[in-house]
Design brief:
By secondary structure, the chain is of the alpha/beta class. It has 15 helices and 9 strands. The chain folds into 2 domains: 108 residues, no CATH class; 181 residues, 3-Layer(aba) Sandwich (Uracil-DNA Glycosylase, subunit E), CATH 3.40.470.10. The chain has a 6-stranded mixed beta sheet, with helices on both faces. It has a 3-stranded mixed beta sheet with strand order 2-1-3. The structure holds iron/sulfur cluster.
Length: 300
């Protein structure tokens, strides 16, 4: 026995969702047509809003069936009854059995709207299309940053190099490996922190950042820090150190001390690329990483 109201409602729902083909089990095409021709008028819920309800409705069941036929296409091609899908168990008596391929409503996955992007993701999208300074002209990638969006430590470097520009990731290559080792040495695996640069695009021939480029890009770093809200910042290299501390002193004078950037404790140290060229400073840099770790523990 067909539940005609349910069937009519189901077909309207599928048509509204753009379905042009469906499979029903335990229901032949003839039974379906008969059910459509005699289905009751749509309920308030089926017919939409009150305003819509006042429009001239399709009055007769036959007309509704005709309309559905038109929307759904030729029945023999689109509606298959009986034993079309033998792997599915027969429906209980008195019920319409619908194929698992066409449930009454969309699956949870398709029905749910895609999750709202986080502020960090929105900022990343904005950076990827940014042309606010001349560095947009020669870049291959915008190297926005990566890592734990809820990291307690954010590492801020200078600018992408050739490998970073190629891959779109910060601190890859040999300098990145050294950074990973130094982070690991104080118990902070790379994936537990967030890593980014003051500039998101590579300066040509790895030249130093220019003041107007740093100014143009500073909003992205500030936005990242606002979104992540870390407990400690670690600036690696002269330009991030000087711009975050707000000083023109050399790294050798700034390192080993604790500063604050917008209220966040800030430690500065040498850039890993410099340490690769001057490995005698690695131990000194390691002390800075230990200081960052100590401040992090104290913050906890
Ligand atoms: S460096 Fe920064 S400001 Fe300049 S184009 Fe890239 S994202 Fe924009």
């Amino acid at each position: 026995m067909l539940d005609r109201a349910l069937l009519a409602r189901y077909l309207r729902q599928r048509a509204e969702l753009g379905e042009r083909e469906l499979f029903l089990e335990g229901c032949s095409a003839e039974e379906l047509l008969a059910a459509l021709a005699s289905s009751p008028p749509p309920t308030e819920w089926e017919s939409g809003t009150a305003g819509e309800r006042e429009k001239p409705a399709t009055s007769s069941a036959a007309a509704r069936a005709s309309m559905l036929r038109e929307v759904l296409g030729p029945l023999p091609a689109g509606i298959v009854g009986g034993a079309a899908r033998p792997e599915v168990a027969a429906p209980p008596a008195g019920a319409i059995s619908l194929s698992p391929a066409l449930p009454l409503s969309h699956s949870a996955e398709s029905a749910q709207p895609s999750p709202k992007p986080s502020p960090l993701q929105v900022l990343g999208e904005q950076a990827r299309s940014c042309t606010a300074c001349r560095l947009s002209e020669g870049r291959r990638s915008v190297v926005f940053g990566e890592g734990d969006p809820a990291a307690r430590l954010v590492v801020v470097g200078e600018a992408p190099g050739q490998e970073e520009d190629r891959t779109g990731r910060p601190f890859v290559g040999q300098a990145g490996k050294l950074l990973d080792l130094l982070l690991m040495s104080v118990g902070l695996p790379r994936e537990s922190v967030y890593i980014c640069n003051t500039l998101k695009c590579r300066p040509p021939q790895n030249r130093n950042p220019l003041p107007d480029e740093l100014a143009a890009c500073s909003g992205f770093l500030q936005g990242q820090l606002s979104a992540i809200a870390p407990s400690v910042l670690l600036a690696v290299g002269k330009f991030p150190a000087q711009s975050l501390v707000g000083s023109e002193e050399s790294i050798s004078r700034l390192r080993g001390r604790l500063f604050r950037y917008r209220g966040i404790p800030l430690v500065v140290t040498y850039h890993p690329a410099f340490l690769l060229r001057s490995p005698q400073w690695i131990t000194t840099a390691w002390e800075d990483f230990q200081l960052a770790r100590k401040v992090l523990d104290e913050q906890a």
